[in-house]
Amino acid sequence: MEPDAQSVEVERMLEILRKTMPFQMVSDALLRRIAALGRQERYERGAVLYDQGDKAGDIYIVISGSVEHALEPGINARRPVQVLGAGDVFGWAALLEKYPHRLAKAVVMDVAVIVRINGDELLRLLEADPDAGDVVMSRFATMITRDYTVPDLIAQMRGIHRKMHSQDIQGMNLTLYRILQWIKSPRPYLMVIGIALFLGTWYLFVEVWKLPRFQEMPGLTVVLKEWLNPNPVYGLSLYTAEYYKHIGVSIWRVAQAFFLATALGVPLGLFLGWSRKFKEYVFPVFETLRPIPILAWVPLAIVMFIATESAVIYLTFLASFFATALNTMLGVESIEESYVRAAYCLGAKKWQVFRHVIVPGALPFIFTGLQISIGVAWFSLVAAEMVSGQYGLGYVINTSYTMVRYPTIIIGMITLGAVGYVTSAMVRILGDYLMQWRVRELALGGQ
Amino acid sequence: MATMTQNMSPAAKATRGAIKIDDVVKIYDPAGAAVMAVDHCSLDIAAGEICMIVGPSGCGKTTLLNAIAGFHEITSGRILLDGEVLCSTEKPKAEPGSDRIVVFQNGALLPWKTNLENVAFGPLMQGKLSRAEAHEKALSMMADAGLSGVEHNYPGEISSGMRRRVEIVRALMNDPKVLLLDEPYRALDSLTKSVMHEALLEIYYRNKVTIFFITHDLEEAIFLGHKVVIMTTRPCKPKKVLEVDIPHPRDYSVLTSKRFRELIEETNDAVHEEALKAFAAGEKEG
Fold first, then answer.
1. Would the CB atoms of A346 and B101 count as touching at under 8 Å?
2. A5 burial level (CB within 10 Å; 0-12, 13-18, 19+)
3. Is residue A60 part of a domain?
4. Min CA distance, A129 vs chain B (Å)?
5. What is the ipTM score, two decimals?
6. Which residue in chain A is spatially nearest to B170 when comparing CA positions?
7. Angle at CA A384, nearest 5°, toward A383 and A387?
8. Interface list for A 58-117 with B (CB within 8 A)
9. DSSP 8-state symbol, A97
10. How many CB atoms lie within 10 A of CB A263?
């Protein structure tokens, strides 16, 4: 036995690994790192590489010569005794965590040249690159399960896999992960700069340079003073209960309208996309009504609903409903035909295809629709509240105009924007939560 | 150590899954201009046989597969599975069913279900197994196919080679008579492809099914198939049927064997001729 591990150049080892079963599909970069772990050694006939029960340290790749591999009696194998030749790999007990002892005896038959790789070091390499690691480990699992029945083997493999993916993102953590990524990226700082530029421009135009068009506008400092004033000049600030009542009323109206629009729009969209006949009946009417602006519905809404509250909710609901239904329909139409066909092939009935293919397949579009929907709900709300109602942010903006309370207009507008942004983000978070598959796909795509 | 010892002649084990394609014609009629896609095509595929259908892209071979699967109607003729009529001139469209499962060209694992849920899908939908039973069976079949560890991942998270394997296992969960593969390895790089071929054979040796495999890769066809059918380009019908006399089980050493090279030489001209015709006709994918 003359160990000459140091003298083996990585290149030759690389060639060997490329031809060896579990490593075939691994990238060259990783192979090179694996090759660096390899030590080539030469053994004379009769040398015992390891015996049953020995502690397992290395895995072995036969380069030349032959090795007899005899399994211990307890193991159920297709062929308990095998002769291994060039290109064969053995001794994978070194990769198992719970069985670090040898299950077989390996004896050199002809003078053999063998590459040894330390199991722990190899595992560590694979863990560092979970994607390639998966491939190697799953090849290993195939090879082992094809030849032996080792108790618990699958469970162990799974354990190793789980360890490799321990940094993976799961469940609601994803939102947190995104926020973390966002903070690490330059984007928040750009955002702060953007806001600062905007506010700075406002301040300069109105209060410093007093540009012609901006003379009548309330300035930044005036608005801030009013907003943060415990005794506001025009009656509305962060310290007045009235302010929160307006916000609350608006949110409640949007919530009702949004809920209605979703409850009616999603099923309508699903059926529009699912049934060609239904679409032929309904879609022309739908497409005629959809472009009509909310303000054009106002007179009709007032005639239809005597109570102003219902009229406001109805108007808020309309545009949301159209956005949700349309996007849902497009979502169904976007589903690949082969998914539907595959489901039928696998014996699914029509309603099962609807439940397991159509609905989940349309979900990404549905959530796009819901985000648009919540946005247009706020749009429409303001229009509706300007027409009728006694509370709400749209009402604040409108009455402040007629009562010449200019700073309050701006307070109402900014509040509206902020609340709208928050609700929209909530819809997105809910969507992430419900569509883990998609989120993980996008995360893998680096988006 | 990765030798396969079972004796694997196709007729040895399989007693079901014989397909008879009898004088099938398919005419597409877009806007009155009748286009003949399949022209009086007759073909017998024995139970448990791997039948490779080779033809240039767009030659109409997928049309044939769609007719067997029950996705499209035929214009005339008959297709029988184990003596039972799937479709005929009188009943032009077969019912899709779990006895004939398609593995799609671009893959059709449901991306919103985990690999395990995908594999368990068939028996669950058919009400054949409870959820626990289906999952148990799926886990063991996936382990057999070397897919341990990816059960709880979504299809989008694993490599495309693995996705194909999951899809084939999903099909085999239903104990089908026939697997219909529509250029399943087309999108894979050649290295992955070679691994997939061996994996497919491994799976085949374990589960005797008839395989109807569409490809335009002659080497792939001869390496995998018991029978290789070279199709004429549109309209599609068998031009040459080659019985591959290389014994199964096969592994990659076959690729460098003399017989393999001879068979390639024997068929290469026929394939090339059709490819030229297809090219001249300016056919697109079909």
1. yes
2. exposed
3. yes
4. 13
5. 0.86
6. A346
7. 90
8. 69, 78-79, 82, 84, 88-90
9. S
10. 12
Q: Do A138 and B157 touch (CB under 8 A)?
A: no
A210, part of any domain? no
The type of residue at A390 is: Q
CA distance B62 to B130: 35
CB contacts of A154 in chain B (<8 Å) are 139, 143, 148
CATH at A326? 1.10.3720.10
Would you call A30 an interface residue with chain B, using a CB distance cutoff of 8 Å?
no
pLDDT band at A301 (very low <50, low <70, confident <90, very high): confident
Smallest CA–CA distance from A359 into chain B, residue: B112
**What pLDDT tens digit does each residue of chain B (286 aa) get?**
334 444 444 444 567 889 999 988 888 876 667 778 888 889 999 999 999 998 877 677 888 899 999 998 888 899 999 988 899 888 888 888 888 999 988 889 999 999 999 999 999 999 999 999 999 999 998 988 888 888 888 888 888 788 888 999 999 999 899 999 998 887 777 777 888 888 888 888 888 899 999 988 888 899 999 999 988 887 888 888 888 888 888 888 888 888 888 888 888 888 888 888 877 776 444 3
Kind plus residue range of the DSSP H or E element containing A159: helix A153-164
**Three-state DSSP class for B224?**
helix
* Contact residues on chain B for A339, CB-CB shorter than 8 A: 108, 110
Contact yes or no for A206/A219 (Cβ under 8 A): yes
One-letter amino acid identity for A413?
M
Which domain, by its residues, includes A14?
Answer: 3-156
Q: Which of A124, A156, A188 represents a domain boundary (last residue)?
A: A156
| Per-residue confidence band for A382, with pLDDT thresholds at 50, 70 and 90 | confident
Give the position of tokens 């598959």: A437
Count of domains for chain A: 2
In this structure, is residue A362 part of a structural domain? yes
Q: State whether A256 and A395 are in the same domain.
A: yes
Give the predicted TM-score (pTM) of the model: 0.67
Q: Are residues A116 and A248 in the same domain?
A: no
**Cα–chain-centroid distance for residue A82?**
47
Q: Tell me the C-alpha distance between A324 and A372, whole Å.
A: 8
Q: What are the structural domains of chain B?
A: 16-99+178-286 (3.40.50.300), 106-175 (no CATH)
Write down which residue in A156, A171, A203 finishes a domain.
A156
